[in-house]
Response regulator
Amino acid sequence: MHTLLLIDDDPDVLATLTRSFRKGYKTLSANGGEAGIAFLNEQPVDLVICDQRMPNISGDQVLGHALQVQPDAIRILLTGYADVESLLTCVNEAHIYKYVTKPWDPAELNLTVVRALEALVLKRNLDTAREQLEIAYKDAVMMLCLAAEGKDQDTSSHLQRVQYYTEALAIAMGVDSKAAAHMGLMSMLHDIGKLATPDAILKKPDKLSPEEWDVMKEHSLSGVRILGNNPFYETAREISAGHHENYDGSGYPHGLSGDDIPLSARIVKIVDVFDALTTQRPYKQPWPMETAMAHIESHAGMMFDPEVVEKLKTLFADGTLTRIKSVF
Ligand SMILES: [Fe+2]
Ligand SMILES: [Fe+2]
């Protein structure tokens, strides 16, 4: 059952409203703006009907507050007179669903409420579907990583550290938090192309011959192929294609340089190397972070984007890198 919050300083109006909605809804009656705000702060509601002209606090202010604390709830304003200015404020600042002029037609108000709540249910269903879809996409990334894990020396903890280092670096580079989190998730797929690399090369204990090395390098573009053409994986494709490009143009597969390499790939390149240096691998002991930072710094402008190197230094100095490493 939906909950309706009815707000009016006139007890008679409030009683009339309550009577007309008591059947079929849970109604909360607030005698005035302050009482309305108190309800909004304490109880989740689905729809608010609020009078405009009340002492101390006006309807547009109450609905503006509703937008802040319960943005999902539908807001309807009752106006006793044609107050154009407050209506404008309300439409602009409180994003009201509709205004109804007093005296109102009960059947019309009732229909307005029914329609508004139908829209609310639809929106909530859509939100749930979108969330489920997002979870499914994330699961697909994890499944791919899991499938690739047995193939490569990369472990899931490497991928998780890469994910969170990438997210932190992206934020430091000015990427908004949602896009940065997405970039982090997509970074886990940087070496997915190794699924297509023959085990004889991938797991060869000795040095690779130049021909074998050429096959190894193909994993960048194999990844792009595996990642298909769904727009959701665009960043993952950028990262797979570009994480072995060098800032000075000496990398592979395309020899791109500078800003021609997508930011996501420039970030993951540094992060991937940083993590390889600071963790144990079959062929090496972990380097202390200071040593790894100095190594990366000495390659700024050659392998790495100097600006991203600077941001990495900041994240090292403020303890972010240490914190992420200690979790995974
Ligand atoms: Fe790679
Ligand atoms: Fe890696």
Remarks:
- The mean pLDDT is 93.
- The first strand starts at residue 3 and ends at 7.
- The beta strands are 3-7, 26-30, 47-51, 74-79, 98-101.
